[in-house]
Task: structure prediction
Amino acid sequence: MDKENKFYVYVYLDPRKPGKHVYGSYVFDYEPFYVGKGKCDRCYHHINENKLLKDKNKLKTNKIKKIIRETGDIPIIIKYSENLLEDVSIDLEIDMIKTIGRIDLKTGCLTNLTGGGNGVLILNKKLLKIKGKKHSKWMKGRYLKEKNSMYGKHYTLEERKIFSKTAKENYKKHPELKEKISNALKKKYKNAEFIKKQKSGYTLSVRTKISKSLKQKYKNNPESHPRLGKKQTDIVKKSIRKKLEKYVYEFENIITKEKYKDTNLKNLCSTLNFSKNSYVVLCSYFSKNIKKYKQWYIHRYNKEK
Result:
C-alpha cells in the first residue's frame, strides 16, 4: 500500500438539486450522487467520453449524461478531503457511502454499486465464481425492468454521434483491433458446426410466425419500421437480383434436364438438396411470376409424355 499522502476522497454533486443536504457529519450544498477515492486526476475520469461508454455502472453514467443534457455543463466535482494516506482515504470513502446510502440498496441517493475501498475487485471475484446458467440468472436479477435505468429509453442522435466518433478514433489509434476482429471471424466461419447452424437457420413455421408478428406490429405502428423512408441502393438491388437469378437458373436448368414426378415445389427442393433460403427465394419468385411457374409445369409435363 502506498505510504505517500497523495490520495483524496471526491464527491460528485447534482447541480439541479441545490440546498443543504446533511448526512450525519457530512454536509453538502448540492445533492451528492457518487463518492470515490483516488489520486492525480482520478476524479475527472467519470466524465471522460471513452469512460462513459465503457463504464459498467449505468446508474452513474446515465445520471452524468442527464445532467450534461439538461444543464449543458458537467456535474459539480469536489475534493472532500485531500493529502490522505491510501488506507485513510479507503476508510473515509467506505464511511461516506455507508452514511449517505446507495440507490441500488434503496438506502440513499448514491449511484455507487459497491461499499467502497476495493469493492470493484470483490465484485469481479464474485463474477468469476458465477458461470453459465447461474451467471445469466444473476445478470437477469440485476437488470430487471424496475432496476434497469435504461428500460424503455433510447440514446439521442447526439449521444450516438459521440459513440460512433469515439469508436472511429479507437480504430484509428489501434489499427490492430480490426485485424484481431477479422481473424476471429475467419476462424469462426471455418468451423463446420457454426456453418451448419448458420445454414439450418429458422424452420419455415418459425419464419412465418415471425413474419406475421412483424407485419402486425408494423401495421399497428408503421412509424416504428426500421426501413421507413429508406430505399435500397442500386448495389443492394443488383446483389438481390443476382442471387435470385442464380437460384432460378439452377432450378430451371435441373428440371429441364431431368424428369420429376412430384409437382410440389417444397418436395422438389428437398430432393435436389436446395437450401431453405433458396426455397424461400424460389417461392417468392414464382408467386410474383405465376405465368413462368405454369410454363415450366407444362414444359415438364410435355417432356414426360
Remarks:
- Confidence is low (pLDDT under 50) at residues 120-125.
- The first strand starts at residue 7 and ends at 23.
- The beta strands are 7-23, 26-38, 76-84.
